[in-house]
Amino acid sequence: MKTYHIPQTELSVSRLAYGCMKIGGSWGPEPLTQAVKDAAAKAVVTAYEQGITLFDHADIYSRGKSEEAFADVWSIVPRDKIVVQSKCGIRFAGDPYPGAPHRFDFSYEHIVASVEGSLRRLRTDYLDVLLLHRPDALVEPEEVARAFDDLSAAGKVRYFGVSNHTAAQMALLRIHIDQPIVINQVQLSLLHHYLISEGVVANIAGKPAVYGEPGRTALATATLDYCRAHGILVQAWGPVASGQVLNPPADAAPHVKATAALVTQMAQEKGTTPEAIALAWLLRHPAGIQPIIGTTKPERIIASCQADAVTLARGEPLP
Question: Pick the catalytic residue: 4, 18, 48, 61?
Fold first, then answer.
């Protein structure tokens, strides 16, 4: 698989990444089963054999069980051949005491404790990349800076980034931290395209983000352009919109069904898979976007990786 260089780092990674959210099974308190571990290993090894070298985690995925399940593959997947990335900052309701609300927490104590937990569950000495998961309204950038400094000095995290952050939120952090922000992981797909489309429809009265789609938009605030200008790799989560661009539900909106039909048509014309077309749309963007695929089905992982061999031209589909 072709690769990207993550700007401001020594890391070279596959153009597609594998998201490990689903490999830990349920989000309840029940422990991992051998069946879940076996399925996780099969999915991860399939991704690795297809050329994927970046594996994305978060401390909350299946309440830590996804990281724990991933660690069982170290006898097959060499640690020094892959990039392991995790995220922190989301706290469940009831954590750390009964009645505590669901919230976001970028305090020094929580960031450091989250990394320690991830390292323990992943059975590794370091994370290649740590991302701050969702913006914390009460963030104190000085605390984030102190956490990053200590984690970096201890060799527990090599590089740092964010997830779901706006341009202004990244700019604020960059004033205080010494380490570069190397990644921003954001929702992006054919159906959630606002980071791209906002620049096209700006200042056009009454026009929807894409013609044929209901008139609506999402706050994007030049985030994509900010990342391009500052050498921040854009990772796309939900790149096939939870499968809606492949097999939309019967009650899907007309523009969703039309998008899925076009994806299927283009896949047939190019002799590839619908997954490959949907992901190649993101790979075509000159920002160098890295889609994060999240299916646990080996056949769909293989179908998705065909995107690396698809190149879309300007203006496709062509007449």
Answer: 61
